[in-house]
């Protein structure tokens, strides 16, 4: 058992260590319903990339294969394309029911392999 002075010293030392700076996300996603389409913007730190958006009715993530990031479980592909100037803009004709909660994730293939965004939630709130 450690003496109280050692425990106190270790506690004070841990308080004096500055927290690690937050690592900026490499992949981002903005998504919303507009008119008769679902519009999304996948952003990536690399200028040119191949990417897409996957959607699911649940926010659950699954680690399918070694080397892939956690991805939405039971997802379908909303759209894919070639990103340029750090953006992949997708405009997918769709008419989801009002009030339906949809979870989305941007997925890209860059020079470091497959990467994904945080899960975003959107709901069609108007007719």
Write the layout of secondary structure elements.
Layout: H1 4-16, E1 27-34, E2 37-44, E3 49-56, E4 61-62, E5 71-72, E6 76-83, E7 87-93, E8 101-110, E9 113-116, E10 120-123
Antiparallel strand pairs: 1-2, 2-7, 3-6, 3-8, 4-5, 8-9, 8-10
What are the segments in which pLDDT stays under 50 over at least 5 consecutive residues? Answer: 5-21
**What is the CATH topology classification name?**
Immunoglobulin-like
How many domains comprise the coordinates? 1
Distance between the termini: 66 Å
Number of strands: 10
By CATH reckoning, the class would read: Mainly Beta
Could you estimate the helical fraction of the residues in percent? 10-25%
Supply the CATH superfamily name. Immunoglobulins
Strand content: over 45%
Structural class: mainly beta
Q: What is the oligomer described by this structure? A: single chain
Radius of gyration: 20 Å
Listing every helix as H and every strand as E from the N terminus to the C terminus, the arrangement reads HEEEEEEEEEE
Which architecture would the CATH scheme give at its second level?
Sandwich
Mean pLDDT: 85
Sketch the major β-sheet.
5 strands, antiparallel
């Amino acid at each position: 058992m450690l003496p109280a002075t050692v425990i106190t010293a270790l506690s004070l030392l841990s308080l004096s260590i500055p927290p690690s700076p937050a690592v900026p996300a490499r992949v981002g996603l903005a998504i919303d319903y507009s008119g008769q389409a679902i519009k999304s913007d996948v952003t990536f730190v690399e200028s040119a990339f191949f990417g897409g958006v996957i959607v699911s009715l649940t926010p659950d993530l699954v680690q399918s294969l070694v080397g892939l990031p956690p991805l939405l479980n039971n997802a379908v592909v909303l759209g894919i394309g070639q990103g340029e100037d750090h953006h992949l803009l997708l405009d997918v004709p769709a008419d989801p029911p009002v009030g339906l909660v949809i979870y989305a994730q941007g997925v890209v293939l860059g020079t470091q392999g497959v990467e994904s965004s945080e899960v975003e939630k959107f709901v069609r709130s108007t007719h």
